[in-house]
Structures are given as C-alpha cells and as structure tokens.
Design a protein that fits this description.
mainly alpha; two-stranded antiparallel ribbon; 5 helices
Length: about 140
C-alpha cells in the first residue's frame, strides 16, 4: 500500500509540474529571448523547464513524511505502529502532493523572474545608453 501511495504522489506531482511547465513555457521563452537575445536562450529555456519538473517532483513527493506509513522497527521489535492509509488519508496525501508541488515551483519561478527583472532593467539601461549615443553622433557626410 505504501508503494502505491508513493507512486500516486509521484504521478500527481509530475502531472502538476508538467502542467505548470506547459503554462509557463511561452513566458519563460519570451523573457529569456529578451534578456539573452541569442540562440543560447533556447538552452536556458530547456533548463528552466527541466528545473520546473525536478523542483516540482522533489517538493511534491514528501518521502520523509511518507515514511510514517512504513512500520519502524528497532532491534526486531516495532517502535511505533504505522499510520493507517484510509481513503481520507489518500485524498489528503494527494492534495498535499499537488499543493507542495505548486509551492516549490512558485518559489523557483519567483526567484527566476526576480533575477530576470533585474537583468531586464540592466539590458534596458544599456539599450537606452546605446540609443543616446546613436542620436548624438553626426550623420554620415556622404548621404
């Protein structure tokens, strides 16, 4: 029963992470293309999608919390009875897996977009300085 719960929480976490990755594909691509403006932005975009999946699954599958469903033994005797896995508990664990997956991904994306905003401001300042230099130069005398 424990293994089934482990696989079920993994499937929920993977499904939620995949859905979030799919929803954020275009915004991440646009942000990276704007900031990096090179073909390497595609590689960074793939990395961000992979990171969303990894962070989502790793935060959504609470392996340490699921250990309580396995009976612990110490010196051949049971230390603490394993928690029961009734229907209500299954629903709670699957809900918790979905919420923790979203929480982990939300924190990761918050950090990504915060740094992306800082990078955007730096890129924009550089563009404005470049435009100011271009406007201040005299035109080509041959035209």
């Amino acid at each position: 029963m424990f293994l089934l719960l482990l696989f079920a929480t993994f499937a929920v976490a993977l499904g939620v992470a995949f859905a979030v990755m799919w929803l954020f594909t275009k915004p991440i691509d646009r942000v990276l293309q704007r900031i990096i403006a090179d073909e390497i932005s595609a590689a960074w975009s793939k990395y961000m999608k992979f990171a969303i999946l990894v962070v989502g699954v790793s935060t959504g599958v609470p392996v340490h919390d699921l250990e309580r469903y396995v009976s612990a033994t110490l010196g051949g005797r049971e230390v603490q009875p394993a928690a029961s896995l009734g229907f209500d508990r299954w629903i709670f664990e699957l809900y918790r897996a979905a919420i923790e997956t979203l929480q982990g991904i939300a924190w990761m994306l918050l950090v990504f977009f915060a740094f992306a905003l800082i990078a955007y401001v730096i890129v924009r300042i550089g563009e404005m300085r470049g435009e100011a230099r271009t406007m201040g130069k005299p035109s080509d005398p041959q035209n």
